[in-house]
Design a protein that fits this description.
- It is a single chain.
- This protein is α+β, with helices and mostly antiparallel strands.
- It has a single domain, classed as Beta-lactamase (3-Layer(aba) Sandwich), CATH 3.40.710.10.
- The protein contains 11 helices and 14 strands.
- The strands form 4 sheets. The protein has a 7-stranded antiparallel beta sheet, sandwiched between helices. Strands 5-9-6 form a 3-stranded antiparallel beta sheet. A two-stranded antiparallel sheet has the order 3-4.
- Helix 2 packs parallel to helix 6 and helix 2 crosses helix 7.
- The protein is globular and about 55 Å long.
Length: 399
C-alpha cells in the first residue's frame, strides 16, 4: 500500500513538473498570411499565428509587416512612374542625378544607369555593406573598391543580386525629383493605389504601428519590429553622434536611411493592390504602355545564368518556373510561369506572384523561418513556402 501511494505521489509530482515544460516547448505557430487576388477581387486565404508573442495578439490579414526584398519591386514601380513623368531616364548616367561621378574602379569610363542597378547588372557587391546610416556618405561607400566586382562593364556585368544598388536608385530618384524617397513612393505608388504603407515606419501613423507584425527568428528571439524598433524610438540607421532627425535631411544625398532594399511595411491586403496594378498592366493609367512593355520584357529577356531562384530578373521584376532544364526555381509547380518578387530577411519569407496568364496572384508572408544555409539572399524557395502555395491554390480552386 505504501509503495502504491509513493508511486501515485511520484506520478502527480512528475506531471506537475512536466506540464510547464511542455507548455513552454509548445511555441505558437508562426505568423502567416496568404492573400489571393485577381483583376477585380482580393481575399484572404490563410491568416494564422501571433503578430506578437509578447502580447498574444493574433495576426490579421492586413497587419503591416516588413516585406523584405519585395520592396525592390515597389522601388522599380516608383522609378518607372517617375520616368513616365519625364523626370528620370532609365538609360542615363546616374552620375547626372547624383551630382558626383559613379564609376566602377574596374571600368572607369563606363556609365552606370538606373536600368543597370535595377537589374543587378552594374557590377556591385554587398561585401562592403549596403546600409549607410544618416550622417555618413553614400559617395564614400561607393568609392570603396569592395563595393564592386570585376565581372564586366555595367550593363554587361554578370548578374549578382546586390542590395547596395537600391540606395543608389532611391537617391538618384530623390535627386531627380527633389522629393524625399518615402514621400516619392507615397505619391507615385501607395496613394494612387489606395495603399496604407510606409518605409521604416516613417509616416505609418499610430494605427499601423499598433498592428505591427513582430518578426521572430526560428529560435524564438525577436529579429525585427519589436517594441524597441517602433516609434517613438528611432527607426532609421543613424551614425554615432548623429541625431535621429529627418528635418535637415537633403533629398538626393543618402536614401539608404529609408531601407529601399527591404524596408517597406505593408499589409498583405494592401500589397495585393500593388499586385493587381501590375496584373492589370496597360488596362489602367498606372503605367504608360511603353513603360509597362519595357517592364515586362526586361524580366522575360533578363536571363541571369543562375541555376536557382534568380534565373530571370529584369527591372525589379522576376520570372520563375519557365521550365528551364538548368534552373531550379519552383514554387507553384503547376506548369505555368509566375511573375513577381520574393523576400527574405529577419526570419521572414514573403512573396508577390501572379501567373503568366495574368489571371491569378498571391501575396504572402510567414515568420520564424531558419536562415538560408548560405546566408541572406541565398538559397531557394523553402518547403514551407511550397506547402503554403499548394494550400492556397487548392483553396482558390474549390467551388
Amino acid at each position: 500500500m505504501m509503495r502504491g501511494m509513493i508511486r501515485c505521489l511520484f506520478a502527480v509530482a512528475l506531471a506537475l513538473f512536466a506540464a510547464p515544460l511542455s507548455a513552454q516547448d509548445a511555441a505558437p505557430p508562426p505568423a502567416t498570411v496568404v492573400v489571393a487576388f485577381d483583376r477585380e477581387t482580393i481575399r484572404p486565404l490563410i491568416v494564422e499565428g501571433l503578430a506578437s508573442r509578447e502580447t498574444g495578439r493574433p495576426v490579421e490579414a492586413n497587419d503591416p509587416v516588413r516585406i523584405a526584398s519585395i520592396s525592390k519591386l515597389i522601388m522599380a514601380l516608383t522609378a518607372l512612374r517617375l520616368a513616365d513623368e519625364g523626370k528620370v531616364d532609365l538609360d542615363r548616367d546616374v552620375s547626372d542625378y547624383l551630382g558626383w561621378k559613379l564609376r566602377s574602379p574596374y571600368h572607369p569610363d563606363a556609365p552606370v544607369t538606373l536600368e543597370h542597378l535595377l537589374m543587378h547588372r552594374a557590377g556591385l557587391s554587398d561585401k562592403a555593406g549596403y546600409v549607410i546610416p544618416l550622417g555618413e556618405s553614400l559617395a564614400e561607400k561607393l568609392a570603396d573598391p569592395a563595393a564592386w566586382r570585376e565581372v564586366g562593364p555595367p550593363g554587361e556585368a554578370a548578374f549578382e543580386y546586390a542590395n547596395l544598388g537600391s540606395p543608389l536608385v532611391a537617391t538618384a530618384l530623390e535627386a531627380a525629383s527633389g522629393e524625399r524617397y518615402d514621400r516619392l513612393v507615397e505619391r507615385l505608388v501607395f496613394a494612387p493605389l489606395g495603399v496604407k504603407a510606409c518605409l521604416n515606419w516613417i509616416g505609418c501613423g499610430a494605427d499601423l504601428q499598433t498592428r505591427a507584425v513582430t518578426l521572430y527568428r526560428d529560435t524564438g528571439e525577436i529579429a525585427k519590429d519589436g517594441p524597441a524598433d517602433l516609434p517613438p524610438n528611432c527607426t532609421i540607421p543613424v551614425a554615432e553622434g548623429q541625431a535621429c532627425d529627418l528635418d535637415a535631411y537633403v533629398p538626393g544625398t543618402n536614401a539608404s536611411i529609408f531601407s529601399p532594399q527591404g524596408g517597406v511595411r505593408i499589409g498583405m491586403m494592401d500589397l495585393a493592390k500593388i499586385g493587381q496594378a501590375i496584373l492589370r498592366g496597360q488596362s489602367t493609367d498606372f503605367f504608360q504602355p511603353d513603360t509597362f512593355e519595357r517592364f515586362g520584357m526586361s524580366a522575360m529577356l533578363g536571363k541571369t545564368g543562375a541555376q536557382e531562384l534568380f534565373c530571370h530578373y529584369g527591372l525589379g521584376l522576376q520570372i520563375i518556373e519557365m521550365n528551364m532544364s538548368d534552373c531550379e526555381d519552383t514554387l507553384f509547380n503547376n506548369g505555368q510561369i509566375w511573375v513577381g518578387h520574393p523576400g527574405e530577411a529577419y526570419g521572414l519569407l514573403s512573396g508577390l506572384w501572379f501567373d503568366g496568364d495574368a489571371k491569378q496572384g498571391f501575396v504572402y508572408f510567414t515568420t520564424a523561418n531558419p536562415p538560408p544555409p548560405g546566408g541572406e539572399d541565398t538559397g531557394n524557395f523553402t518547403e514551407r513556402e511550397k506547402a503554403l502555395m499548394k494550400q492556397a491554390m487548392e483553396m482558390v480552386e474549390k467551388p
